[in-house]
Design brief:
This protein is an alpha+beta fold and 482 residues long. Helices cover 32% and strands 27% of the residues. Helix 12 links the parallel strand 22 (427-430) and strand 23 (447-452).
Length: 482
């Protein structure tokens, strides 16, 4: 059977997109050129917004219990603490916790959820060609099979084959030289309740606690010149520089489970769509890992795209709705790229002026509690709003396009629940029965009727927990879904 959507890439973005589409009743096929799931990963932090998306996919279960609660960053100059930033709930009404956990574990949970929904990734299935017409896309896989699909989505990373086949440009610049990345056990007395980082003339070094009593070590090391070093060479280099850069506070590197080498690039796709081919995640944007924004932004892309594509597949909306995917998500990616680039430049500052600004201006500023709460607020992405986009609007808060918190609600039968738990592939009407019936006439059975337990205006909430409109939804739905 021909799938409605072919997703290329079985990383966190592709898996999240596939789960979301299946929740919406859209048939999906997922292919990946790799021979099997990744067991290691660069990403190791899921912010509150990411946890909310996983919760709405019903894929969060078990992950918070496995994660490490490392909610502080202490920065040292030698053995002297310079700054301590404490992360936590910035007062934005979320039940979803930030988590220090391997991307590999997040992917594993998403694969479990995909299986529950009736899907599975096809490993060893590379996309080699794609030809689109007015009705769909004919994709050719590496084993010679062809797949006819209505929509092709590239979630296949920075070297995206989908992006290249679609002829979409990916301009950008190199931001830094090389970083070493090692996951290892340490003989150390470092506090596992938070991340430790050191500023050093030869380059910054950070140590983040990971599940399994491991640490993730990250070091900027432009002096390391080997073009294609082995994992053993990377580990040995980290073992040599760890004591000096941390004034021996980092301890000794014992056994390593993974090592990698990377440079930071900043790139943004010229467009997120060409005809029936779309991009999400690293295929559309790539940036520095500082701040943990990569996987977070990618799965946000997936959730945003899924409900819009589902309406089109089910004949409930015109294809022009897809234009709002780029207009809502690309500005956020632009902002993330700018922020992560600035953070990278601060972290790798080597000149006297840059080091002075970092150590004597920024460090004292970020010891202020208000600035720390701002940092939590910014990196969480709970602030994201689409009010300035084509589906947004003005007026008293919350405004159309704003995120609606995970408020307590009652179902029609009076049982207690949470708003976000009721979304999971559905829209929600918070208000009286007449408003619910008005929404159901346009959206069918993919809308749920809830009553807020607190003082809230009547509203229609999108499946991604953003406000569609207040009051009678008829006019908004007729305009947005035309």
């Amino acid at each position: 059977m021909e799938p409605d959507v072919l997703v290329v890439g079985a990383g966190p973005v592709g898996l999240a997109l596939a789960c979301a589409l299946l929740q919406h009743g859209v048939s999906v096929q997922v292919v990946d050129k790799a021979q099997g799931p990744a067991t290691t990963s660069r990403a190791n932090f899921v912010h509150a917004r990411g946890s909310e998306v996983l919760d709405r996919l019903d894929a969060l279960s078990g992950l918070p219990e496995e994660s490490v609660r490392a909610m502080a960053i202490t920065t040292y100059a030698g053995d002297r603490p310079m700054m301590r930033i404490r992360f936590g709930d910035p007062g934005l009404d979320t039940a979803a916790p930030p988590m220090v956990i391997s991307q590999a574990r997040v992917e594993a949970r998403l694969r479990e959820r995909l299986a529950e929904l009736g899907g599975r990734p096809e490993w060893g299935s590379a996309l080699v060609a794609a030809d689109q017409d007015a009705d769909g896309v004919t994709a050719v896989l590496g084993d010679g099979r062809t797949v006819r699909t209505r929509w092709l989505i590239g979630c296949d990373g920075t070297s995206s084959t989908v992006r290249k086949l679609a002829g979409i440009g990916f301009p950008g610049v190199k931001v830094s030289e090389r970083f070493l990345l090692v996951d290892a056990h340490l003989d150390t007395t470092l506090d596992r309740s938070g991340t430790s980082g050191w500023v050093h003339p030869e380059g910054m070094l950070g140590a983040m606690p990971m599940p399994g009593d491991q640490w993730r070590l990250l070091a900027y090391d432009p002096q390391f010149r080997d073009d294609k070093p082995s994992e053993e060479q990377i580990v040995e280099r980290m073992r040599r520089i760890l004591p000096g850069r941390t004034s021996n506070l980092g301890g000794r590197l014992l056994e390593a489970s993974w090592a990698s080498l990377f440079s930071v690039h900043r790139r943004l796709a010229d467009t997120y769509r060409r005809g029936r081919i779309l991009l999400a995640g690293d295929a559309a944007h790539v940036h520095a890992p500082f701040g943990g924004q990569g996987m977070l932004t990618g799965i946000g892309d997936a959730e945003n795209l899924a409900w819009k594509l589902a309406l089109i597949v089910h004949g409930l909306a015109g294809e022009q709705l897809l234009a709002t995917y780029q207009t809502e998500r690309r500005p956020l990616a632009t902002q993330v790229l700018r922020g992560s680039t600035a953070t990278t430049k601060i972290n790798i500052a080597s000149g006297p002026v840059g080091r002075f600004l970092r150590d004597h201006v920024l460090v004292p500023v970020f010891n202020i509690g208000r600035l720390q709460r701002w940092a939590t607020y910014t990196t969480s992405q709970l602030w994201v709003s689409y009010r300035r986009g084509p589906l947004g609007g003005r007026g008293p808060r919350p405004r159309p396009g704003d995120r609606i918190p995970d408020v307590a609600c009652e179902r029609a039968d009076g049982t207690r629940t949470r708003l976000h738990a009721e979304l999971r592939g559905r829209w929600a009407v918070l208000g009286d029965r007449d408003l619910f019936e008005a929404a159901r006439r346009r959206l069918g059975d993919r809308v749920v009727h809830l009553r807020p337990t607190g003082p809230l205006p009547a509203m229609l909430v999108r499946p991604d927990a953003h406000l569609a409109c207040k009051g009678d939804p008829t006019r908004w739905l007729d305009g947005a879904l035309a």
